[in-house]
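ligand=fe (ii) ion
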Amino acid sequence: MLRKIAVTDLVVGMYVVDTGLSWLEHPYLYTEEGELRSQVAVAGIAASGYTEAFIDTERGAYANTLSGEPGGEVSLAALLARGPVTPVAPVVPLAEELETAKGVYKDCLSTAQAMLRDVAAGGEVDIEAPQALVNEVIASAVRNPDALIALGKLRRHDAYTFTHGVNVAVLAVAFGASLGIEAEGLRELGLAGLFHDLGKTGVPDAILNKPGRLTPGEFTQVKAHPRLGRELLETRGLPEAVLRGVAEHHEKWGGQGYPRGLAGETVHAWGRIIGVVDIFDALTSRRAYKEGMLPTRALAVLYSMRERDFPPGLVERFIKFMGPYPVGSFVRLGSGEYAFVRGSNPARPLSPELLVAFDAAMHPAPRRILAAERDGKGPLAIAEALDPAAYGLDPLDYLGLPAG
Ligand SMILES: [Fe+2]
């Protein structure tokens, strides 16, 4: 489909079409046909004084990723086919962004808590505060996505219901950005993440917190939560994509999910992304009745689910995004020393930036910052990931600190 758009809305991957309109009559129309290959090319068009261009929404790498039409469908397959977005170096160093992100994260938690309380008391869902906060989450993720991801480790296990929503929103936004999803889509994803389990306010706590197996009757009640969530949000003027992200986050690729048993590509892309992120956060969360799983282990579990439960390529991309050792991981090195992962390295996932903090006897050591060796056998290579909580350590006490 041909669309005329302002050159300020052009993005890399769009396919510009020469419609044959006369240059003399339309001097501000950019007509050089072909796919826009770089940000420099895009910026150059506006800088040359053009104001409009025709694009073909069915051609070029951008095709079918985001239609831009209200209520338009996003093709997850097209997003995944587009390949990894070149990782951009963080705009702000982690230690600095952590300070800002802490405030954003705290605001998210209190907003999520208030929202659940209001809805449980029969009130309407407030969407104003969440909308403002999701914008702040996106801004922080653009400055340095590691900060908010590391903050997820602050979670208090007694506050799972609302920390989970916040963590899913944060992870979905950061993962979505790595897939090249544009701002409007990220806003929808963030809101869908924050609201995804809102419908659980309609399920009794005794069922939600039951450590053992649910009876078939109890499971039927749990299975209603995506639909209940959608119903609670439906009258609030949110985009349909947000409602579908909420309603479809437990649907599975093979059709064995709930509540509707939708299969394959009928499920909205936001529902799929929330689905992956939801499971990762649930597995790595500590609850009253279980320890949190290490990220490496949780990613292995997701990998084992990839063919049956998720669209081709989605889990693989999520693993690539998180890396085997996300920021905040606590690891033992080949030398026997212990370190925290304080910076991701998307190009070399086995070689993240480390803060060495303890010697082989677990005594505090002079702190040094270094990149892990990639060869798994070297003294400075990561030998294994460990649970910092088992050692009574909070990664956040170390991430913001300089070496020495
Ligand atoms: Fe859920």
